[in-house]
Amino acid sequence: MADYEATTRSNYFHVTDEEKFHQIFEQIQEKNFGIELFTGSDHTYGFGAYSDVDMDDIFELQDIIPDDDCIIVMESGHENLRYVDGIGYVITKERIESLSIMSWVQKKAKELMQDPNYTTQIDY
């Protein structure tokens, strides 16, 4: 059995409280080995890791996102050729939404084939 390998990356985003952001991010780094923090030139932050990241930890940042910005997190990963998937999150001050590539392509295949009962196996 192979190991799941992932890469995670966020957009650059603003925060309303930089001190609180750094406190939360230190906790995130303690729990998520290898996650890196990036600082943009316009007082923005981003992060990435050569692994998956516990999104419950990232959701802790929701309270310090400004009303006019969001955090976008993208993760893609695979376990050899057994399966390949990715997920995207959009985190605003008010909402958190996510979309799995595997779920989206299955839904899109049903739509394009005009067959709501269409099924296929895309992981092995």
What pattern of helices and strands is seen along the backbone? EHEEHEEEH
Instruction: Kindly report the average pLDDT value.
Output: 95
What kind of sheet is the major sheet? Answer: 6 strands, antiparallel
Backbone CA Rg: 17 Å
Strand order, main sheet: write it out.
2-3-1-4-5-6
Helix percent reads 10-25%
Shape: globular
- Number of discrete helical segments: 3
> Helix/strand/pairing class, anyone?
alpha+beta
- Contiguous runs where pLDDT drops below 50 for at least 5 residues: none
Strand percentage lies at 25-35%
Number of strands: 6
Q: Separation of termini?
A: 12 Å
Write up what this structure looks like.
It is globular and about 50 Å long. It has a 6-stranded antiparallel beta sheet. The chain contains 3 helices and 6 strands, in the order E-H-E-E-H-E-E-E-H. It is of the alpha+beta class and 124 residues long. It has helices at 18-31, 55-58, 101-112; strands at 5-10, 36-39, 45-49, 71-79, 83-91, 96-100. Helices cover 24% and strands 31% of the residues.
